[in-house]
Amino acid sequence: MKGRRFWAVALAACLAAGIMGCGDSSSEKKDPDAPAGKAGEQTGNTEEETAGGGTTAKDTLTIGMGNSITTLDFMNGGMTDSAYQLLSMIGATLLKQVDENNDGIAELVTEGSITESYEWDEDNLGITFHLREGIKMHDQTELHADDVIFCLEKYQTSKEYASVDFENTKAVDDYTVYFKLRSSGTVLLNRIATRPIYSKEACESSSSEGVFFTEGFVSCGPYKIDQWVSGDSVTLSVFDEYYGEKPVIDHVICRFFAEPSVAMMELQSGGVDMITSPDFTDYTSVEDGAYGDQFSTLYVPSVQTYSIYFDMASEKLQPLQLRQAIMYAMNREEISDGTFNGWGSLCYSMHGISYQDLTVYDKDSWPYKTNLEKAKELMKEAGLEDGVTLTLITHNASGYYQKIAEILANQLKEINVDVDINVYEPATFKSLQNATDGSWDLSITSPEVPYATTIGAWFADGYVDDSMHAGVLPAEGYQEAYELGSKLMQSTDNSEIKTMTAELEEKYFNEYLWWCPVQNSGVYTIMSTKLHDVTRMWTQMDITKAYFTE
Q1: All residues at 6 or more sequence positions from 281 whose CB lies less than 8 Å from its CB, including other chains
Q2: What integer pLDDT is reported at residue 442 of this predicted model?
Q3: What is the mean pLDDT of the chain?
Q4: Could you count the other beta carbons within 10 Å of the beta carbon of residue 435?
Q5: Which of 40, 400, 453, 522 matches a 20 to 30 Å C-alpha distance to 387?
Q6: Which of 41-55, 376-390, 524-538 has the lowest mean pLDDT?
Q7: How far apart are CA 337 and CA 284, in angstroms?
Q8: What angle do CA 335, 337, 341 make, to 5 degrees?
């Protein structure tokens, strides 16, 4: 399998684009300071390695997901973890992400994707994709280059795609797509090659985009939508004309549960066969054998980093001493235990597990060990010894964000900081966070761009100034950081990149301090021991080879 592997994967957030991730070692509970481990194979009764001949004891798989899906539109801002999981079953992308090394870091490959091959121009300022011919969409129309152009042009107003020259991007013929670039870099390949591709004709003929990006979604993935019950469930069936390997299980029902405890009860009663966003207490109980051989677990590492952000447009947060005081008052171990029940690992770099080889910090050198006395001194230096009230916003894409907010708010009371917590739907949250009016002070989320890149590319392409972070960092006042980021983006020398990244992190934690990375989280699944060969990568999953035994 040929692919392009990246030495760093950026920005883990509630949003991903790959569908593979299986492993070769059993899941184990993590010390919060331990590095994230390799992907784990399903624990429990897995004696039968394969169903053989595509057979399965049951032809309907019922999945208990987290919050319900309001849209499958990446540009909408309302994508939940459940939406990404569903897209991985019904959608397709130009290239496919796989995790062959089982470390949470993906590579892009043509195998299993809608692309036969692709190549860069000699100057690296253009990419040509050659599509597989004869791929059928769910509405029986054929996938053409015009569909790809239509889907990707939707992002031309996003700053993430500012380096794509859409005016000179074109469908060369029915099966060839050419993307003209204003600058080169693997970050652009990721953004182009991992967005969902769907039917232009079906989208344009739909009664509304709202309908198309829910019940009317037409792509060319292994499953197609049969029924959409808003807020409750989505029913899928195998797409008989699928261009790849046909799934073993014919039908899938995705049920939504806002409360993980309810999903666990459904798993116990047989109402679902697996849950994709379990409560970590339940996950621990299964791991500890509390349910005997009834259930198994699946763990894979993830680049998702739960983080606390400071809105640099907020007048209250202008004193660096206040931001540092919050850092010193924070007990990240307590947040990890209270939210993730000890699973995952604390983050000591600007972002997640992909930067462990680059970060200048570790458990011993971390500059913000919990120190309430230091935090109180800094509050006094900031002239805030009498206290301050801060507004915190977060979202319900998963329940973990609100838990982090509640624990943090309780900790900050120790330094006379009151926190007003506001939880929103993802789309509303994104809109609020993108505002630059200083209406909020703190936010809790995960960085939005989940694709492989270098931290230099992340800075230089203006990511900090768009998408989820527009309200976090003003466009002016941080020229030094942008200049260093630009140098990083242009460099292809790993040694030079490591040196500059270390310099950037040193300045960030001691001079800039726009946010605090808290926790690297893996992907955790609980399922019936009768269900086998489910593989996951971040919020995505591949169930094409899954099957049931008696």
Answers
A1: 341
A2: 94
A3: 81
A4: 14
A5: 400
A6: 41-55
A7: 12
A8: 135
Whether the pLDDT of residue 205 is over 60: the answer is yes
Question: Residue 200: what pLDDT?
Answer: 97
Q: What is the band of 492 on the pLDDT scale with cuts at 50, 70, 90?
A: low
d(CA 505, CA 502): 5
Task: Report pLDDT for 42.
Answer: 60
Over 80: is that where the pLDDT of 400 sits? yes
What would the two tokens of residue 307 be?
Answer: 């983080």
Q: Are strands 540-542 and 535-537 parallel, antiparallel or unpaired?
A: antiparallel
What count of other Cβ atoms lies within 10 Å of the Cβ of residue 124?
14
Confidence band, pLDDT 50/70/90 cuts, at residue 491: low
Amino acid letter, residue 386: D
Whole-angstrom Cα distance, residue 363 to residue 288? Answer: 27
326 neighbors 378 (Cβ within 8 angstroms): no
Give the end-to-end CA distance of the chain in Å, rounded to a whole number.
34
What 3-state DSSP class applies to 16? coil
pLDDT, position 397 = 80
- When mean pLDDT is compared over 6-15, 247-256, 446-455, the highest value belongs to 247-256
How confident is the model over 90-113, as a mean pLDDT? 84
Cβ-contact 391, 405 below 8 angstroms: no
Query: In angstroms, rounded to a whole number, what is the distance separating the alpha carbons of residues 412 and 329?
Result: 6
Residues 6+ apart with CB under 8 A from 234: 69, 86, 225, 227, 228, 253, 254
State the pLDDT at residue 36: 37
Q: Do 107 and 4 contact (CB within 8 A), yes or no?
A: yes
* Six token digits for residue 335: 């947040």
For 237, the enclosing helix (H) or strand (E) is strand 233-238
Three-state SS at 355: helix
Nearest by Cα to 376 from 403, 404, 416: 416
Tell me the C-alpha distance between 153 and 89, whole Å: 23
CA angle centred on 120, ends 117 and 126, rounded to 5°: 120
- pLDDT 10s digits, 115-168: 999 999 998 899 999 999 999 999 999 999 999 999 999 998 877 787 899 999
Is 355 within 8 Å of 456 (Cβ atoms)?
A: no
Alpha-carbon distance of 146 to 137, in angstroms, equals: 13
Q: How many CB atoms lie within 10 A of CB 48?
A: 12
pLDDT tens digits for 412-433? 999 999 999 999 988 888 888 8
Spell out a b/e string for 511-538, using b for 16 or more CB atoms within 10 Å of the CB, else e. ebbbbbbbbbbbbbbbbbbbbbbbbbbb
Letter for the amino acid at 349? S
pLDDT at 473 over 60: no
* C-alpha closest to that of 539 among 6, 14, 142: 14
Over its C-alpha atoms, the chain yields an Rg (Å, rounded) of 23
Q: How many CA atoms lie within 13 A of 481 on its CB side?
A: 24
Give, for 129, the enclosing helix (H) or strand (E): strand 126-131
On whether the CB atoms of residues 331 and 370 are closer than 8 A, the answer is yes
The 3-class secondary structure across 487-542, one letter per residue, is: HHHHCCCHHHHHHHHHHHHHHHHHHHCCEEEEEEEEEEEEEECCEECCEEECCEEE
